[in-house]
């Protein structure tokens, strides 16, 4: 019974990881940007959801009406104002530091605005749950999971099937060539970043439904998310999703024998195993860079 | 709190009319910021009460408060600065065991008296500090003493058989839970779950699943605040109903009831302080505190205030308050005397460990009341706990 | 016998890049390796220099088996190469680029006079000495191509593998490079050159190997290759 | 026109060239002369420091590549600019990014597949996995997806085998015949000048000599300096 | 000529810096300033150690904080559990961490670019988990108390450690300089630029990276261990913090990673700035904002660091314009060559 319950919990958790990791994958796989600040924005979105619920009394889910466009715009702004200034040759490395700086700034501002106190959305249905086959599923967790699935599929379709998706990928791989084909690379890259950040808005809302938030919480998320995108194969959205589900499940199951803290190490063990046996990631290949 | 600059007035000898500067570092941001701010209020309330009465030794009391960002490296630098650069006359402690230990070492090495409001875990008293005094009735491991006695005194058929423990990985939180665990195990209550989680844990569903699956009679949470709430909500989601549930600090928080959907009845918590406690100075404290801050003091505020009271008693008795020789006099006096405070009379052993016990509170009818020990109880002990 | 491969095979997913390439290059000669786009020449170089591992087959150099050895070991065994898509160290100056090819050795300073003089002389021979202090990323395509060539020559490998050295190089300069290759060859260096510029290939090489679909289809001196029908059909497109 | 990179000294120092519609102008010159720079300025990738870019009588100086495309100017870069991590299909179709007419696109696709077999063969594989020459072919095919008024080609034949080179030159001629103005940079200078109508020798960022292509080809002095042949009289320098 | 004057300039700068570092303790008005000096020197050693990897090979590690933490804990545990004398423990700890860096490096250095950064972050997080959870050995969240090596008053203690850190800094800088001017160093730099190419030129890239990573880990561990002996209280949360690691990167970048004294300059700047932010915004989380903004400004506007930026400035004042374009035509070149033959 405990096993089945844990599997369910792992599944639900994995869904959330998948959504968040795919946002990271988007920046990286497509834009070669390591976005350390992703989870900071995640927490920011969660704070906004909490704040609107607390002040205006709207359901956190409704906050997405505001946060998703807001984050999209913020993403476009970040990309157009800051990231474009980095030299292409050192983009990956410098982006780590730049987004790290952004993360610190967001954390500091959150702390300034909302203090370091832990916050939690209190909903009428916070503790509601229903039973299937003897295990219980909390309503809030299910909502978060559904949100994740919708956002994730949308993302996949957008990247693979739309003109925009193509233009975005072209832009990243050879900016000059893309410009010469008539692609407005500035705008496209901006939108790409905006979409990535919009996933953080959705994820943050989902997160706010069932956990506590505090400004420095984003550190807690960076590790597992980074591990997931490496295990899933940097740049592969389906890979990230698969890795997230597997690792989320593993974490949940390992908690039974090992306890919370040690169970978290599964992400890093998986990370190192990936590097040792399949550096390009377990769920998606990458080009050999040599020629 | 606009306080003394960096002038470092070196001749703050007694008898002069210079203020007595008390240096404090507190976690005003970071992990411990909430209780840290509570302690700050306690200190400020104390300084105001003292100053309103004409100060200590005829000198005004001035607080110099730094923020250590809940960071152990910072807290050391802060006390280093307070003692070395700002030349404060006295220092008192920060919040939380994790910060108390390193800062007490700085004070010790500069031969300063170090009374502290929140280093409750037993580790604090194992460092060989000679100048440290914990200004509260009991150390963490003894918080549940009354509860343990009560449970083990229950008739055999009512007595719980199994217990689950979930404690934050923090010396204080673990200290409380394990103090009880030790006693219950000795009394024959079997431990079925024993979980430790890191301070930053936000997802408690895994731990809750284990606790729920074990169907333990007693649940003991070694919690600070939010982790306790999260654990309870996760348990509610899984439909687990213990017969008895006790959490350190969390249930005393004013937000607690709302956070868990008001299903509080029966939840237990130890406390070192009660607003209604009959001690002489307490009435004054509650009154003045309310006037100053517009709310009633909680345990953290009381701890800060108590610390002030202890220091004040020593200063008054020794007749001095500055760095150097004087500090030794203060320390010696505290080692051999008893101090009356808002949490009752306090006295210490050689390691600075206080010699009292905590009371046990319980949520009854949407209010938290003292239920143990029997001689000071405000309400009857509810057992078994109703569903949440 | 110097550089030789036996039944070298390499497939990438469905594409067979090398399909049992058995080749024997002539030591002390200028060898050319030609073939249509995608016939496996670069892949062949990559396998020989250890940049990728062949699926099967053997690479030998002076009777030593080099199959699957790390690239730097192969380089130290005396095989130097250039890349088709030229690869320079972008943020190092031309001089440093060339110096980087000096056999490495511990903490000894690289700023010895003779090293620098040698490096400068290579830059001069390739007509880019005026760029010695410019960073490689500021150079035109052809300049980088020449710089890369200077780098590999600096290492003084016994056998030099060049992947399209003429790509993007000015024809006037190319004449000089051709002469240079002959000179170096006269000093005893072996060359294997991948090139599509037939004028260059025909004028400087002693021995030509023609690849098609991952395996040699013809080999021989230029005069023979020029009139080989398979070559004409598969490669020259006449 | 004057142009340069960053704070460095100018690369182009008073250079002008005009390309009539329906003609091929071939730009040759030593490595680092500034040929690519001319094309980058004309294609809108680099802003000139001084001087003007005029298309069909309209001053378009300072326009970005997107606007230039709007004015009918299309540039194919030197080196390799395929989108490595996208399939050949995606690469080719992106060539028609500005087109909306599905039928026309389909026609074009069929056409490029026919003239470059590799495009058809490797339609679904990632472009970055193709050999150097294959990538170049895909790139050229990509540029054939639109019908610009002015085409700027930077060494389109580099790395191509003789067959593909012929195909490329055929296409260039076809474009000219269709009334397009072609500005071609080539190091395969003799071949290029044979195809071109006008030739222009660029050195040190200036026009050195220009004139009908055949005439340049016949000039023995140019041959030695730029095409491989005998030297011309030196031009004084500042 | 410009070379000689440059050398004199650099020489005086070094002499001044050394002198400033040496006289600082006697000028420090109180033990607090002295202890801040110790911290800054500690940062300087750490940033210089980081720069062995970051500066030469271009692999940016956000995980060096963890190596310092390991050094600290190893030293502490060797003193407490094994009863080794303090400085013997320090030496053994540095060797242990260097040894541990071999497998760590083998795993981490297999991947390049972004993956390496991620691995380095993971290193910190996993060590944090281990040191927190394995309480029976490490003391867990209770922390570890490292006994003092000398029986000195606190100000004297600071002074002694100040000089110890200064010595360590001198050794680290010297080692960096030796590598910088060596062939080994050039090999490392070529890895930074293009790893495959370097390998094709015969550089044993993996071994080189590993060696320099181990050297870097050793110095980092020494700094961490010395810090443990100085500070006395170790807590996993602060020993294994990404923030520490990122401060090192900030310092090195700010000063200039290609420059011998870049990290030292960065450490002095950032160390002072951190103190300043603390004093100014100490009671709000705005110090994080200040750090973040500073880092962003450096990355955006001075990606090569302060020292190179100053160098550029000096160069711009110098009128002689350099250009990469050839100043003679092909014809003239042909003439010259003919004359030379
Ligand atoms: N890493 C790779 N993954 C998949 N296929 C590859 C890879 N490298 C090469 N190929 C394929 O192998 C074949 C041979 O490529 P190679 O680069 O060796 O050709 P080449 O003879 O050098 O051609 P070119 O003259 O165009 O440079 C090509 O069809 C190419 O698509
Ligand atoms: N990004 C750059 N930054 C600074 N200088 C540059 C840059 N690109 C080119 N240059 C310089 O400008 C000059 C002209 O370069 P350009 O690329 O136009 O030459 P090119 O004629 O195309 O040569 P090639 O035949 O080698 O391709 C060269 O001297 C080169 O060093
Ligand atoms: C009782 C509390 C004030 C003690 C504090 N939470 C500590 O960590 O020690
Ligand atoms: Mg090739
Ligand atoms: Mg060019």
UniProtKB/TrEMBL annotation, chain A:
<comment type="similarity">
    <text>Belongs to the binding-protein-dependent transport system permease family. LivHM subfamily.</text>
</comment>
<feature type="transmembrane region" description="Helical">
    <location>
        <begin position="135"/>
        <end position="159"/>
    </location>
</feature>
<dbReference type="InterPro" id="IPR001851">
    <property type="entry name" value="ABC_transp_permease"/>
</dbReference>
<keyword id="KW-0813">Transport</keyword>
<keyword id="KW-0812">Transmembrane</keyword>
<feature type="transmembrane region" description="Helical">
    <location>
        <begin position="188"/>
        <end position="209"/>
    </location>
</feature>
<feature type="transmembrane region" description="Helical">
    <location>
        <begin position="6"/>
        <end position="26"/>
    </location>
</feature>
<keyword id="KW-0029">Amino-acid transport</keyword>
<dbReference type="GO" id="GO:0005886">
    <property type="term" value="C:plasma membrane"/>
</dbReference>
<dbReference type="InterPro" id="IPR052157">
    <property type="entry name" value="BCAA_transport_permease"/>
</dbReference>
<feature type="transmembrane region" description="Helical">
    <location>
        <begin position="95"/>
        <end position="115"/>
    </location>
</feature>
<feature type="transmembrane region" description="Helical">
    <location>
        <begin position="33"/>
        <end position="52"/>
    </location>
</feature>
Automatic annotation (TrEMBL), chain C:
<dbReference type="GO" id="GO:0005524">
    <property type="term" value="F:ATP binding"/>
</dbReference>
<dbReference type="Pfam" id="PF12399">
    <property type="entry name" value="BCA_ABC_TP_C"/>
</dbReference>
<keyword id="KW-0813">Transport</keyword>
<dbReference type="Pfam" id="PF00005">
    <property type="entry name" value="ABC_tran"/>
</dbReference>
<dbReference type="InterPro" id="IPR003593">
    <property type="entry name" value="AAA+_ATPase"/>
</dbReference>
<feature type="domain" description="ABC transporter">
    <location>
        <begin position="3"/>
        <end position="238"/>
    </location>
</feature>
<keyword id="KW-0067">ATP-binding</keyword>
<dbReference type="InterPro" id="IPR051120">
    <property type="entry name" value="ABC_AA/LPS_Transport"/>
</dbReference>
<dbReference type="GO" id="GO:0016887">
    <property type="term" value="F:ATP hydrolysis activity"/>
</dbReference>
<protein>
    <submittedName>
        <fullName>Branched-chain amino acid transport system ATP-binding protein</fullName>
    </submittedName>
</protein>
<dbReference type="GO" id="GO:0005886">
    <property type="term" value="C:plasma membrane"/>
</dbReference>
<dbReference type="InterPro" id="IPR032823">
    <property type="entry name" value="BCA_ABC_TP_C"/>
</dbReference>
TrEMBL record, chain D:
<dbReference type="GO" id="GO:0015807">
    <property type="term" value="P:L-amino acid transport"/>
</dbReference>
<protein>
    <submittedName>
        <fullName>Branched-chain amino acid transport system ATP-binding protein</fullName>
    </submittedName>
</protein>
<dbReference type="GO" id="GO:0016887">
    <property type="term" value="F:ATP hydrolysis activity"/>
</dbReference>
<dbReference type="InterPro" id="IPR003593">
    <property type="entry name" value="AAA+_ATPase"/>
</dbReference>
<keyword id="KW-0547">Nucleotide-binding</keyword>
<dbReference type="Pfam" id="PF00005">
    <property type="entry name" value="ABC_tran"/>
</dbReference>
<feature type="domain" description="ABC transporter">
    <location>
        <begin position="1"/>
        <end position="229"/>
    </location>
</feature>
<keyword id="KW-0029">Amino-acid transport</keyword>
<dbReference type="GO" id="GO:0005524">
    <property type="term" value="F:ATP binding"/>
</dbReference>
<dbReference type="InterPro" id="IPR003439">
    <property type="entry name" value="ABC_transporter-like_ATP-bd"/>
</dbReference>
<dbReference type="InterPro" id="IPR052156">
    <property type="entry name" value="BCAA_Transport_ATP-bd_LivF"/>
</dbReference>
<dbReference type="GO" id="GO:0015658">
    <property type="term" value="F:branched-chain amino acid transmembrane transporter activity"/>
</dbReference>
UniProtKB/TrEMBL annotation, chain E:
<keyword id="KW-1133">Transmembrane helix</keyword>
<keyword id="KW-0812">Transmembrane</keyword>
<feature type="transmembrane region" description="Helical">
    <location>
        <begin position="160"/>
        <end position="179"/>
    </location>
</feature>
<feature type="transmembrane region" description="Helical">
    <location>
        <begin position="60"/>
        <end position="80"/>
    </location>
</feature>
<feature type="transmembrane region" description="Helical">
    <location>
        <begin position="33"/>
        <end position="53"/>
    </location>
</feature>
<dbReference type="Pfam" id="PF02653">
    <property type="entry name" value="BPD_transp_2"/>
</dbReference>
<keyword id="KW-0472">Membrane</keyword>
<dbReference type="GO" id="GO:0005886">
    <property type="term" value="C:plasma membrane"/>
</dbReference>
<feature type="transmembrane region" description="Helical">
    <location>
        <begin position="289"/>
        <end position="314"/>
    </location>
</feature>
<dbReference type="GO" id="GO:0015658">
    <property type="term" value="F:branched-chain amino acid transmembrane transporter activity"/>
</dbReference>
<protein>
    <submittedName>
        <fullName>Branched-chain amino acid transport system permease protein</fullName>
    </submittedName>
</protein>
<feature type="transmembrane region" description="Helical">
    <location>
        <begin position="7"/>
        <end position="27"/>
    </location>
</feature>
């Amino acid at each position: 019974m405990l096993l089945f319950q844990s599997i369910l919990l792992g599944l639900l958790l994995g869904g959330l990881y998948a959504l968040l990791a795919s946002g990271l994958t988007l920046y990286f796989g497509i834009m070669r940007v390591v976005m350390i600040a992703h989870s900071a924005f995640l927490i920011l979105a969660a704070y906004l959801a909490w704040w609107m619920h607390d002040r205006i009394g709207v359901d956190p889910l409704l906050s997405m009406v505001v946060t998703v466009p807001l984050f999209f715009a913020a993403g476009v702004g970040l990309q157009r104002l800051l990231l474009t200034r980095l030299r292409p040759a050192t983009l990956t490395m410098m982006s780590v530091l730049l987004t790290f700086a952004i993360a610190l700034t967001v954390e500091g501002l959150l702390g300034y605005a909302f203090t370091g106190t832990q916050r939690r959305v209190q909903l009428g249905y916070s503790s509601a749950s229903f039973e299937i086959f003897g295990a219980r599923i909390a309503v809030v967790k299910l909502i978060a999971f559904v949100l994740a699935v919708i956002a994730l599929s949308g993302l996949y379709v957008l990247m693979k099937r739309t003109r925009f998706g193509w233009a975005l990928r072209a832009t990243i791989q050879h900016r000059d060539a893309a410009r010469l084909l008539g692609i407005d690379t500035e705008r496209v890259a901006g939108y790409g970043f905006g979409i990535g950040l919009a996933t953080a808005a959705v994820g943050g809302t989902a997160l706010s439904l069932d956990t506590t938030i505090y400004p420095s919480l984003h550190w807690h998320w960076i590790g597992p998310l980074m591990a997931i995108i490496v295990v899933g194969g940097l740049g592969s959205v389906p890979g990230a999703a698969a890795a997230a589900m597997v690792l989320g499940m593993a974490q949940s199951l390992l908690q039974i024998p090992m306890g919370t803290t040690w169970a978290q190490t599964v992400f890093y063990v998986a990370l190192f195993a990936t590097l040792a046996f399949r550096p390009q990631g377990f769920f998606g290949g990458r080009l050999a860079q040599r020629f | 709190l606009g306080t003394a600059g960096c002038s470092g007035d070196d001749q703050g000898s007694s008898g002069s009319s210079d203020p007595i500067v008390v240096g404090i570092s507190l976690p005003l941001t970071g992990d411990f910021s909430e209780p840290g701010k509570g302690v700050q209020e306690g200190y400020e309330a104390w300084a105001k009460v003292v100053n309103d009465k004409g100060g200590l030794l005829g000198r005004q009391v001035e607080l110099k408060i730094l923020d250590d960002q809940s960071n152990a490296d910072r807290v050391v630098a802060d006390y280093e600065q307070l003692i070395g650069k700002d030349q404060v006359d006295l220092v008192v402690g920060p919040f939380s065991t994790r910060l108390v230990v390193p800062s007490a070492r700085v004070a010790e090495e500069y031969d300063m008296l170090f009374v502290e409001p929140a280093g409750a875990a037993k580790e604090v008293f194992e460092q060989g500090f000679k100048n440290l005094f914990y200004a509260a009735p009991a150390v963490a491991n003894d918080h549940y003493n009354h509860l343990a006695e009560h449970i083990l005194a229950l008739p055999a058929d009512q007595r719980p058989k199994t217990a689950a423990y979930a404690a934050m990985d923090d010396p204080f939180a673990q200290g409380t839970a394990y103090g009880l665990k030790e006693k219950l195990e000795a009394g024959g209550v079997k431990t079925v779950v024993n979980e430790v989680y890191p301070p930053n844990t936000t997802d408690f569903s895994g731990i809750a699943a284990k606790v729920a699956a074990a169907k333990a009679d007693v649940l003991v949470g070694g919690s600070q605040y939010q982790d306790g709430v999260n654990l309870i909500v996760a348990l509610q989601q899984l439909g687990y109903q213990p017969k008895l549930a006790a959490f350190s600090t969390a249930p005393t928080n004013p937000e607690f009831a709302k956070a868990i959907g008001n299903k509080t009845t029966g939840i237990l918590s130890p406390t070192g302080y009660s607003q209604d406690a009959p001690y002489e100075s307490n009435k004054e404290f509650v009154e003045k505190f309310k006037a100053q801050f517009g709310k009633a003091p909680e345990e953290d505020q009381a701890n800060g205030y108590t610390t002030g009271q202890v220091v004040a008693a020593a200063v008054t008795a020794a007749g001095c308050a500055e760095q150097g020789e004087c500090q030794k006099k203060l320390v010696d006096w505290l080692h051999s005397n008893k101090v009356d405070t808002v949490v009752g009379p306090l006295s210490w052993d050689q390691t600075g460990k206080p010699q009292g016990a905590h009371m046990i509170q319980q949520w009854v009818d949407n209010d938290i009341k003292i239920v143990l020990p029997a001689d000071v109880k405000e309400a009857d002990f509810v057992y078994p706990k109703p569903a949440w | 016998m110097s550089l030789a491969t036996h039944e070298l095979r390499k497939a990438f997913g469905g594409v067979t890049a090398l399909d049992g390439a058995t080749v024997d290059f002539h030591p002390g000669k200028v060898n050319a390796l030609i073939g249509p786009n995608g016939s496996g020449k670069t892949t062949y170089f990559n396998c020989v220099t250890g940049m990728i591992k062949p699926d099967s087959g053997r690479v030998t150099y002076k009777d030593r088996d080099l199959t699957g050895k790390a690239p730097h070991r192969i380089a130290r065994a005396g095989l130097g190469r250039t890349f088709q898509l030229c690869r320079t160290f972008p943020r190092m100056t031309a001089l440093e680029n060339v110096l980087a090819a000096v056999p490495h050795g511990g903490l000894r300073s690289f700023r010895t006079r003779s090293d620098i003089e040698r490096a400068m002389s290579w830059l001069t021979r390739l007509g880019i000495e005026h760029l010695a202090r410019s960073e490689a990323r500021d150079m035109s395509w052809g300049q980088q191509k020449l710089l890369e060539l200077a780098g590999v020559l600096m290492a003084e490998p016994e056998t030099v593998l060049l992947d399209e050295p003429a790509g993007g190089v000015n024809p006037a300069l190319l004449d000089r490079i051709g002469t240079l290759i002959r000179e170096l060859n006269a000093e005893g260096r072996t060359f294997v050159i991948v090139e599509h510029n037939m004028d260059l290939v025909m004028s400087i090489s002693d021995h030509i190997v023609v690849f098609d679909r991952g395996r040699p289809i013809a080999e021989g001196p230029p005069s023979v290759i020029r009139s080989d029908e398979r070559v004409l059909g598969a490669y020259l497109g006449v | 026109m004057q142009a340069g990179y960053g704070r460095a000294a100018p690369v182009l120092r008073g250079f002008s060239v005009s390309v009539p519609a329906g003609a091929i102008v071939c730009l040759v010159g030593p490595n680092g002369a500034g040929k690519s720079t001319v094309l980058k300025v004309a294609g809108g990738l680099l802003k000139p420091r001084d001087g003007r870019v005029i298309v069909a009588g309209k001053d378009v100086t300072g326009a970005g590549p997107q606007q230039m495309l709007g004015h009918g100017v299309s540039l194919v870069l030197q080196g390799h600019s395929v989108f490595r991590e996208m399939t050949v299909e995606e690469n080719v179709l992106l060539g028609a990014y500005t087109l909306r007419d599905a039928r026309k696109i389909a026609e074009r696709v069929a056409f490029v597949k026919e003239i470059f077999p590799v495009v058809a063969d490797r339609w679904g594989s990632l472009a970055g996995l193709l050999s150097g020459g294959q990538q170049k072919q895909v790139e050229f095919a990509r540029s054939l997806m639109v019908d610009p008024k002015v085409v700027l080609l930077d060494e389109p034949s580099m790395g191509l085998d003789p067959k593909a080179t012929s195909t490329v030159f055929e296409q260039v001629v076809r474009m000219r015949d269709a009334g397009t103005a072609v500005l071609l940079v080539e190091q395969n200078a003799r071949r290029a000048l044979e195809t071109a109508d006008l030739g222009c020798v660029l050195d040190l960022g200036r026009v050195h000599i220009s004139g009908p292509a055949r005439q340049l080809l016949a000039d023995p002095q140019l041959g030695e300096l730029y095409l491989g042949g005998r030297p011309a009289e030196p031009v004084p320098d500042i | 000529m410009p070379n000689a004057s440059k050398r004199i300039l650099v020489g005086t700068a070094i002499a001044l810096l050394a002198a400033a570092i040496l006289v600082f303790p006697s000028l420090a008005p109180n033990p607090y300033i002295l202890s801040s000096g110790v911290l800054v020197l500690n940062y300087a050693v750490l940033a210089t150690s980081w720069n062995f990897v970051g500066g030469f090979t271009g692999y940016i590690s956000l995980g060096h904080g963890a190596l310092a933490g390991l050094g600290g804990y190893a030293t502490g545990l060797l003193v407490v559990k094994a009863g080794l004398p303090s400085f013997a423990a320090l030496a053994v700890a540095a060797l242990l961490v260097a040894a541990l860096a071999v497998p760590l490096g083998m795993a981490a250095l297999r991947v390049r670019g972004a993956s390496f950064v991620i691995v380095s972050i993971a290193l910190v997080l996993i060590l944090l988990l281990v040191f927190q959870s394995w309480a029976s050995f490490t003391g867990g969240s209770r922390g570890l108390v490292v006994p003092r090596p000398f029986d000195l008053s606190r100000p004297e203690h600071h002074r002694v450690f100040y000089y110890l850190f200064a010595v360590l800094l001198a050794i680290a800088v010297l080692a960096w300089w030796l590598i910088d001017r060596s062939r080994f160093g050039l090999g490392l730099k070529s890895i930074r630029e293009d790893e495959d190419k370097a390998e094709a030129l015969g550089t044993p890239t993996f071994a080189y990276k590993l060696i320099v990573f181990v050297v870097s880990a050793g110095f980092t561990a020494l700094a961490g261990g010395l810090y443990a002996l100085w500070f006395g209280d170790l807590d996993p949360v602060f020993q294994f913090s990404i923030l520490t690691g990122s401060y090192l990167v900030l310092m090195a970048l700010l000063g200039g990673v290609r420059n011998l004294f870049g990290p030292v300059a960065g450490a002095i700047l950032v160390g002072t700035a951190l103190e300043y932010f603390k004093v100014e915004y100490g009671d709000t989380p705005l110090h994080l904002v200040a750090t973040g903004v500073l880092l962003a400004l450096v990355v955006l506007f001075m990606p090569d660091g302060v020292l190179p930026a100053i160098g550029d400035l000096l160069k711009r004042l110098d009128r002689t314009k350099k250009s990469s374009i050839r100043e003679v035509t092909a014809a003239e070149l042909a003439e010259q060559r003919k004359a030379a033959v």
